[in-house]
């Protein structure tokens, strides 16, 4: 029955059949005319999804971490000051990456379940001259959403580049890269973009490309260096053959398929679908007497982080959910890893998928002796969804 299980972790997610079928085509040459067209289309479609008509897109074989590494390697030079705004595990990862690129980093870690107040960010920006700041739009370890817009306004005021880790948000949360003045917004294929793991995707502003062009020192990492990749991206957009490193041909074919599906739905509608589903799902979770990890913080629309109820063993809970055909993720934040679990709801996720999750969740909780009214989560979800979509 493996094939009937729903993969509801925060990436990789359930992929559309058309996207998986696109992966199965005979692999063509990376300079075949039809593949050049596919690659060029994908770059153009990225601008629509990111709302970045003036951005420079990059499609690189690798994971989200490579995308983070690439932004750091190309924009940061030895001794540059970088402010890391963290709301969980991936903020800490960005600090580690930046430290490795020679940056002088300052970490602003929000208290658990909260966002760092704008005043705290501004106070930090006043203390020294920063080259860049980073933020995680959705930290997948905590399910916390950061609104990049007001932070980008502060960054502009202090002339600081804004780098957004959008691995768990791009193509699902509201994003307006050009209008908000974000310099890099990066992601990976396996989350809300809806393509199997293996592609690092970045969109870079004109301003950031100029900062990179005016570097005093060479980019220390050969594979990450935009000098090698920019001509390839430009060639594909001009529909010319080019080569630096062999692209992940089948993944790029799948990416074009997915970006077309996303653009057909339309970003505004897609964001609203994620918002409605997340809102109804959180209401159902509360109705089941469960607590979510974000307290005063904004809650993400791509996943929900939920504490195990008092007295219920996490491993037993996850195993029972699996027996009930829903695959969920455990905790990720080292200090509290064993106390909570995460459910992803992004990409092509539907109300029906979340009804299946809630059904399994109710059965699991009942089997493990949690006190709640059976059917209350499902009923709350239905009521909320109907309220949002009358
Ligand atoms: C998943 C994730 C990453 C890392 O992506 P990989 O593809 O696993 O390297 C980075 N940041 C965030 C916010 C993520 O959700």
Automatic annotation (TrEMBL):
Modified residues (N6-(pyridoxal phosphate)lysine): 191
Source superkingdom: Bacteria
Stored Pfam families: Aminotran_5 (PF00266)
GO molecular function terms listed in the Swiss-Prot or TrEMBL record: alanine-glyoxylate transaminase activity; L-serine-pyruvate transaminase activity
Cofactor or coenzyme needed: pyridoxal 5'-phosphate
Keyword terms: Aminotransferase, Pyridoxal phosphate, Transferase
Family of the protein in this entry: Belongs to the class-V pyridoxal-phosphate-dependent aminotransferase family.
Name of the molecule in the record: Alanine--glyoxylate aminotransferase family protein
Species whose genome carries this gene: Flavobacterium muglaense
């Amino acid at each position: 029955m493996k094939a009937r299980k729903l993969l509801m972790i925060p990436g990789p997610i359930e992929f559309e059949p058309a996207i998986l079928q696109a992966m199965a085509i005979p692999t063509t040459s990376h300079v075949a005319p039809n593949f050049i067209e596919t690659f060029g289309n994908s770059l153009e479609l990225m601008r629509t999804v990111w709302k970045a008509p003036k951005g420079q897109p990059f499609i690189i074989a690798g994971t989200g971490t490579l995308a983070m590494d690439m932004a750091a390697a190309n924009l940061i030079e030895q001794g540059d000051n970088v402010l890391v705004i963290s709301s969980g595990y991936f903020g800490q990862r960005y600090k580690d990456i930046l430290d490795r690129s020679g940056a002088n980093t300052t970490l602003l870690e929000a208290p658990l379940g909260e966002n760092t107040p704008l005043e705290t960010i501004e106070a930090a920006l006043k203390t020294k001259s920063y080259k860049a700041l980073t933020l995680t739009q959705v930290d997948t370890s905590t399910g916390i959403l950061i609104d990049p817009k007001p932070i980008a306004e502060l960054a502009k005021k202090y002339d600081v580049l804004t780098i957004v880790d959008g691995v768990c948000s791009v193509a699902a949360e509201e994003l307006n890269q050009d209008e908000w003045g974000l310099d890099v917004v990066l992601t990976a294929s396996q989350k809300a973009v809806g393509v199997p793991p293996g592609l690092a995707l970045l969109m870079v502003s004109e301003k950031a490309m100029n900062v990179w062009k005016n570097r005093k020192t060479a980019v220390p990492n050969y594979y990450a260096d935009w000098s090698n990749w920019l001509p390839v991206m430009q060639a594909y957009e001009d529909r010319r053959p080019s080569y630096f490193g062999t692209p992940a041909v089948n993944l790029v074919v799948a990416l074009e398929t997915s970006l077309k599906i996303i653009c057909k739905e339309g970003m505004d509608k897609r964001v609203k679908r994620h918002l409605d589903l997340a809102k109804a799902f959180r209401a159902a979770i509360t109705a089941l007497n469960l607590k979510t990890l974000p307290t005063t913080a904004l809650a993400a629309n791509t996943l929900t982080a939920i504490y195990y109820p008092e007295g219920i063993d996490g491993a037993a809970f996850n195993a029972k959910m699996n027996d009930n055909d829903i695959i969920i993720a455990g905790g990720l934040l080292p200090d509290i890893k064993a106390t909570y679990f995460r459910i992803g709801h992004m990409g092509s996720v539907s109300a029906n998928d979340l009804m299946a999750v809630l059904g399994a969740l109710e059965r699991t909780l009942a089997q493990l002796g949690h006190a709640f009214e059976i059917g209350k989560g499902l009923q709350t979800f239905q009521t909320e969804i109907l309220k949002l979509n009358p």
